[in-house]
Structures are given as C-alpha cells and as structure tokens.
Design goal:
This protein is of the alpha/beta class. It has helices at 28-43, 71-83, 99-106, 133-136, 142-151, 157-163, 173-186, 189-199, 201-222, 225-235, and strands spanning 4-9, 12-17, 49-54, 58-60, 88-92, 95-97, 109-112, 117-119, 154-156, 168-169. It is built from 10 helices and 10 strands.
C-alpha cells in the first residue's frame, strides 16, 4: 500500500501524505512513494498543478527515526519538488516538524490553517537542519530562521506566514487556497513552467552548490553520539543528557 494517496480535480492533482501510524514521518517508504507520485504528475499533461497535503493532524513529523530515508534520497525529493515543471502548493492543517518543514518550504506556494504548528526540532535531537536549509533559507527571514533553528521553539501559522515559511494563513485554509487554484487553472502550462523556472533559480543554485556537502553533513550528524542520545531520548520520551 502506498504512503501517498492521489486525487484529481479540474487539472489539479492532490497528493496526500497518508502514513498516520508514524504521523507522516519521512520514512524511506514515504519518500519513495512521494517521489514516484510527483514523477507521475510531472509526466502527465492533464496535471496543471499539484496540491501536497496530509491525512490526520500531522503534515509530517520529520525524519522517521526508526526507518529513516537515505539522506541522498531526501535531498533528491526536495529538489524534485523545486524542479517539477508544475506548481506545487502545500495545504497544511496540522503539525510540521524538522524535515517536514523542508518539504513545505520546497513548495512554490504554501497555505496553513489554525491547526498548523511548526518547529525546527533538529537541535533537540542532536542534529542540524542541513538538507532542508537549501529550499528554506532563501525564503525565510534571516533573524527568524536563526531564532527558530537554534531554539527548536514551536510557532503557529500566522508566524510562519510572517517569516516566509507560508505564503498565507487563515481560519479556513480551503478558502485561502481557492483563489490560488483558480489562478493556476487559468494559466497556460507553458507559462507556469517557465515562470516557476525563473522563481526557483536561486533555490536550485543553492542545491547545485551545497547539496553534496549538506547531504554528507546530515549523514554524519545522524551517525553521531549526540544524535544517538537525542533519538533514544525522543523515543523513550525523556530529556536527552545535555538538557540543563
């Protein structure tokens, strides 16, 4: 069974992360299934745009600590979202943590509802937001990025919109999304592809320059003693040894 479900309506394909047993954590299976679904969307001329959403109360809990994806596969997935010749719109009504923020940040447009919450929790398990920095740092307010990446604090959808993680936030996420999808349906496929290419050029330059080094950094940090303690503490629902 795929960890991603698919629906299609008037040129828009909705891909829903559908792995509630692990809160849509980025497992090897979910990364593989999402990459395959995106490839299908990219090759299908009937798809004008993609909505990336989720089942349950969590968009994505970040990396699956029990069945993590290969860092290179996750890097490739983020780049695939950025390079897809069709706009990708994130629809978020739940919690987003760590690597899930990279997935949202790779999308061209992102909207969030009142149930959404966000946190860069990497520092709390002994790693760093290495790979996700590539799609995120070109978009985020630098001062806000420093605060939230260094502290792991949680913030809401309104703050996510203020700092550039979300395009917009509202009490009714589908009401916010409706004019976005209407606009995409009115645009020509060629115009969307070329306009997206212009808009993502800086992000792709970051991938070209930094992907190998940041993927290696991610792998090294996840194999470190700090990460071992942090992940064990998380799974055991206790504070890691370094907490003062």
């Amino acid at each position: 069974m795929s960890a991603v479900t698919t629906a299609h309506d008037r040129g828009v394909t909705t891909l829903a992360l559908d792995s509630p047993g692990n809160r849509n954590a980025l497992s090897a299976a979910l990364v593989r299934d999402l990459a395959a679904a995106l490839a299908d969307c990219g090759a299908d001329p009937a798809v004008r745009a993609v909505v990336l959403t989720h089942t349950g109360t969590t968009f994505s809990a970040g990396a699956d600590l029990r069945q993590p994806p290969d860092p290179a596969a996750f890097t490739a997935l983020l780049r695939q979202v950025v390079e897809l010749p069709k706009p990708v719109v994130a629809r978020i009504t739940g919690h987003v943590r760590a690597g899930g923020l990279g997935l949202a940040g790779a999308c061209d447009i992102a909207v969030g509802g009142p149930g959404a919450s966000f946190a860069f929790t990497e520092v709390r398990i002994g790693v760093a937001p290495a790979v996700i920095a590539m799609p995120l740092l070109p978009r985020l307010d630098p001062r806000a990025a420093a605060r939230y990446c260094l502290t792991g604090e949680r913030f809401d959808a309104a703050e996510a919109a203020r700092i550039g993680l979300l395009t917009a936030a509202g009490d009714d996420v589908d009401a916010v999304l409706a004019p976005v999808l209407d606009g995409l349906r009115r645009a020509s496929p060629q115009a969307l592809a070329e306009t997206k290419r212009l808009l993502t050029a800086i992000v792709l330059e970051t991938f070209d320059r930094d992907a190998d080094a940041l993927t290696a950094l991610s792998a090294r940090l996840f194999a470190s003693a700090d990460a071992g303690e942090g992940m064990t503490a998380f799974l055991e629902r206790r504070d890691p040894a370094w907490v003062l």
